[in-house]
Amino acid sequence: MEQFSLGKVLGTGFRVWFRNLVPFLAITTIIYAPFLIWALMIVHGNPPMETLGKDLQRLNSASLVLVPLLNILVSSALVYGVVMELKGEHASMFRCLGTGLSRFFPVLGVTLLTMLAVIGGALLLIVPGLIIACMLYVTTGVAVLERPGLFGALARSSALTAGHRWAIFGLLLILSVINYVLTKGTGHLFVLSPQMTETEVRELVQRYIHVDLARAVLVGSLSSVMSSSAYYYLRLEKEGTSAGELARVFE
Q1: What DSSP line would sit under 85-106, residue for residue?
Q2: Which residues does 198 contact at the CB level (< 8 Å), separation at least 6?
């Protein structure tokens, strides 16, 4: 029986992501649309310079809440796309979005419980929060494909990830590093200078927001694909469940 490993999850995740890059990014962009439109309205609305900085701070603070919530729907939608790709079939964008919407509220409940558990662990000490994050890493896949209920999804994820939490921690660390490098790289590309005119500052901020929003879409879609890949390999190792068997839930 095939063994779960960090290398297999990463290899499969990147392969599936690149093969479906356009539709997966399109799905993520559609789901992010309310946040993207709001962000673009702020930077293209020509607010006074004295309020532009405050508007950007509010946008950044809101993104810390809105992006994780939107990623719930992204993950719900892309689970279907990943499973169908692993089965050897291409999933339509409409079917992915339909699957995500149909399972949104159960996945929302499971994800909120997961977030509360991780935050609670982090408040005690950082390490318990990381352990809980690794334990509950595949709750979305469980909620979409198995539908065991809110607390059942958490227990099921804990059972599936048992014995592989160091590998999952490595996966989370790699994704965090990718996001950090992209974020820092974006910041270094757009540096304000005291010599800039007001028009130049506005144009620089606009370009920065455009690139940073693209980064958010890229990272959101990739992270969702990786969690689905991890779920697939955990089921494959522990239960011998193939992609075809996982896909039967959508029939």
Answers
A1: HHHT-PPPHHHHHHHHHHTHHH
A2: 49
Residue that is written with structure tokens 């999952």 in the block: 168
Over 70: is that where the pLDDT of 34 sits? yes
223-247: per-residue pLDDT in tens? 999 999 999 999 998 888 888 888 8
d(Cα 189, Cα 209) in Å, to the nearest integer?
12
Maximal CA-CA distance, the chain: 64
The rounded radius of gyration (Å) of the Cα atoms in the chain is: 19
List the structure tokens of 81. Answer: 């796309």
Cα 91 versus chain centre, distance: 19
Helix (H) or strand (E) holding 231, with range, is helix 198-239
Length of the chain: 251
Mean pLDDT on 207-221: 88
Query: Using one digit for the tens of pLDDT, what is the confidence trace for 71-109?
Result: 888 888 898 889 889 988 877 788 888 877 777 777 777
User: Is pTM beyond 0.85 here?
Assistant: yes
Q: Is 182 exposed, middle or buried (0-12, 13-18, 19+ CB in 10 A)?
A: middle
Tell me the CB-side half-sphere exposure of residue 68, using CA atoms within 13 A: 11
